[in-house]
Amino acid sequence: MSIYTPDRFDRAVLHLDLDSFFVSVECLKNSQFIGKPLLIGGSSKRGVVASCSYEARRFGIHSAMPMKMAKRLCPHAIVLRGDMESYSYYSHLVTEVIAEEAPLFEKASVDEFYLDLTGMDKYFGCHQWSSKLRNKIIRESGLPISFGLSVNKLVAKVGTGEGKPNGEKAVPVGKEKEFLGPLSTRKIPGVGREAYKKLCFMGVKKVQTLSAIPVRLLEREFGKLGRSIWNKANAIDPSPVVPYTEKKSISKERTFSQDTLDLAGIKSLLMRMVEELAFELRTSEKLCSCVTVKIRYADFNTYTRQKSLTYTANDQILINTVKDLFDLLYERRQLIRLVGVRFSGLVHGNYQISLFDDNERQINLLREMDQIRRRFGNNAIKLAHSMDREVDVSRSGSLLGAKYDRRII
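Below the sequence we write its predicted structure tokens.
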């Protein structure tokens, strides 16, 4: 067992990661799945694997792989749609256990946490304390979890990966570069598929080799990413553990100047709200798990309807959900005074091709649209069904002064 004994000037950062989180929850609910190749994800032609068991990984299956390909690699694998309600419950349960014990922690995603244990070794052994916390999480949740312990978030996260499954890895102070050196550059967070291919083409396959390359050369080849991966290869990561404060929701509402029955205009407005909120989610690196639609009629009676869904920040998924909720909610056939959309159940996390029904084309489209928005503004590009229309409403209930943006998808 590695011994972690920092002096008073060193940081101590613990990274906790629930192993194959979705799969582990399903196995906890149904013991018949234990030891079998299990796939969680969309079963449609364009569905992808959101999570897979270690038994399935032996066949070459991994997260974000098209489900169609995964089934070819392992025809006898069990495929489940997934139960977001259960995943949210267990994520919250683990968060509560950590909150009871940790002096400072950051919830990085539904199944990933960072804890700042700096100074605790003066009174407790950081490794010993971390092991006790891990055992408590396993005991109270029934889920396997691994951890990495080091002087910063980067090395701790890589350590967790090396400690999996259901294990521990502590990197002694001063041994960070020695620990990272023999590893593949693919294991460095931030080195994606394309960057890894380029590094391999350059003959750089190990972190040790990467760390010795002049930073200016990497900047020339990779731009800003070059300095970032050089820092990581040299175990440099000053980023702090951000205290966990859960923002409960984000929302938008619009009160019309005149009550309206123009359902096409109202739906267009709702779609635009969704796009803006989804962009806000991705910009702040958040995902939501609950969508609520609100209607206020001309007589001031207000109604809401909500739906839980897989953690997402995908425009199309959220737009379809809002459309369905509005159709279910609008029953009175009266003039509408106000509409609103709220996203709740927020967690920190980057949107990736690891959710149930996404495909690579949709994700690439979102990324390109977001780049345009960041450069030219939020209204620079939008989907065709949310074309910008003036929301000032006449007494007859029609939306006036329709305005269209030429840059539409």
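Residues 263-283 form the longest helix (21 residues).
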